Amino acid sequence: MSEAADGRFPVKVEVMAWATTFVGGDGSDRKSFEVEAAPGDSVRSVLKRFSARFPALNDALWDRGSADLGEHIEVAVNDALLGIHHTLDTPVKAGDEILLMGQFMGG
Questions:
Q1: How many Cα atoms within 13 Å fall on the side-chain side of residue 99?
Q2: How far apart are CA 78 and CA 80, in angstroms?
Q3: Integer angstrom CA distances of residue 94 from 29, 78, 80
Q4: CA-CA distance, 87 to 101, in Å (whole number)?
């Protein structure tokens, strides 16, 4: 999918590790998707649109009752974790890649 005449463009969303169980995976692989974005869309709006397709992911990704991320899935944009070069409100552009990965916790 390339940039359309109306300015819409694809953003790649990749889900890895145990987080794939929320999008039809087995928890050990990666699954890639394309989400159509428009000029002015943010990381948050792309993730909201994407997670709406997968109710279990939607529940895991977002803090209940808010538009903030929950605490169990990390988000990276173009290989950098959120907070380094991007925030949820950073505009996306053609060619951007968003990675969702489950956190690993333990002692």
A1: 14
A2: 6
A3: 25, 12, 17
A4: 16
pTM over 0.70: yes
Residue 37 β-bridge partners: 9
CB 66 within 8 A of CB 88: no
Q: Which CATH superfamily is domain 11-102 in?
A: Beta-grasp domain (3.10.20.30)
Tokens of residue 36, six digits: 């159509």
Residues 6+ apart with CB under 8 A from 106: none
Q: How far apart are CA 59 and CA 91, in angstroms?
A: 23
Q: For 46-57, write each residue's pLDDT tens digit.
A: 999 999 999 999
Looking at this protein, which amino acid is placed at residue 21?
A: T
Tens of pLDDT, residues 24-43: 999 988 999 999 999 999 99
